[in-house]
Design a protein that fits this description.
Layout (H helix, E strand, L loop, with lengths): L12 H7 L7 E5 L5 E6 L9 E6 L1 H4 L15 H9 L2 E4 L7 H10 L1 H8 L3 E5 L2 H10 L12 H28 L4 E5 L10 H25 L3 E2 L1 H5 L3 H4 L9 H31 L3 H8 L1
Parallel strand pairs: 3-4, 3-5, 5-6, 6-7
Antiparallel strand pairs: 1-2
């Protein structure tokens, strides 16, 4: 039997009961194959409740440079917008500077973070930018309008993307292990460089594009829709990215929340359709005995 995800969901067991003609809180006489009546069963099915959104990621998730200081996550960051729209409590665990390796290590070793993720009904994951930006900054590429990538630097980027491709499936697996019934919203990366910086933009497009291919592949294998930050920001960097910065403006955070909501809604409908299919594939008596 496919599991029905808990927390923030469009599918409640009440709905399932209504589909099968079961009225919650009333008695129902089940029958065996020979039509012999058995004792009535009192059915009280829970409704879906608002849950907790746990946001995992880096400074983008954190809302860096949006609040009065960067000592705590900014409430203008996209996780809080998503939580507000859906009535969820929000725990923003984004950490500025984190790479995919940092997030994976935390998911494997940080017991406090693990405990929080276990409570999640929705988990957002936006990671990977610093896998590239750290190298680009170290090599001085972000300060040049006409960056020249040496063979050694190119090899470093290839290695970083390969490590990201190893880390991401482990991140998804660890999140699923900790919160098996949570919806997972996986973001791809946006290119923070405006096209007016032709050469730097071209380099960023190449590197971001390669990581986004990894994200798309992993999402497909995991059956997850992708929150398409790249498409939302493409051609709109002057509006969505802070000047002389790589982090989103408030409007940029709004855009991230919007694509996250779109992905979340898609996943919920996928769960709904799967649940309806499961219901249609089994008899009423199967579901009565399974749900009770």
């Amino acid at each position: 039997m496919s599991s029905v995800k808990t927390g923030k969901t469009v599918v409640s067991l009440l709905t399932a009961a209504a589909m099968m003609g079961i009225v919650p809180g009333t008695a129902m006489a089940a029958t065996t194959n020979d039509s012999t009546s058995v004792a009535p069963i009192s059915i009280t099915l829970p409704t879906a409740q608002k849950g907790m959104l746990v946001a995992l990621g880096d400074s983008i998730t954190f809302g860096y440079n949006l609040g009065p200081n960067n000592k705590q996550p900014a409430h203008e960051a996209f996780p809080y917008l998503l939580g507000k729209w859906n009535g969820d409590t929000v725990r923003d665990l984004g950490v500025p500077g984190w790479t995919s390796g940092d997030l994976l290590t935390a998911l494997q070793q940080d017991t406090t973070l693990q405990s929080t993720v276990r409570q999640a009904s929705v988990v957002t994951i936006d990671i990977g930018s610093n896998d590239l930006l750290g190298l680009a900054e170290k090599d001085g590429l972000l300060n040049s309008s006409n960056p020249v990538v040496t063979p050694q630097e190119q090899a470093q980027f290839v290695q970083a993307i390969a490590e990201f491709a190893q880390n991401l499936p482990q991140i998804l697996a660890q999140v699923h292990h900790l919160a098996p019934h949570a919806y997972v919203v996986l973001y791809n990366l946006y290119d923070p460089i405006s096209s007016q910086f032709v050469n730097l933009h071209a380099l960023a497009e190449q590197l971001v594009g390669q990581e986004n291919q990894v994200i798309a592949k992993m999402a497909s294998q995991a059956g997850l829709p992708v929150a398409n930050a790249y498409a939302a920001f493409n051609g709109r960097q002057d509006i969505f990215v802070r000047p002389a910065d790589v982090h989103p403006t408030i409007l940029g955070q709004d855009a991230l929340a919007a694509v996250g909501e779109q992905a979340l809604t898609t996943e919920e409908w996928q769960a709904w359709n799967q649940f309806v299919q499961d219901v249609s594939n089994h008899s009423v008596s199967y579901w009565v005995h399974t749900l009770l």
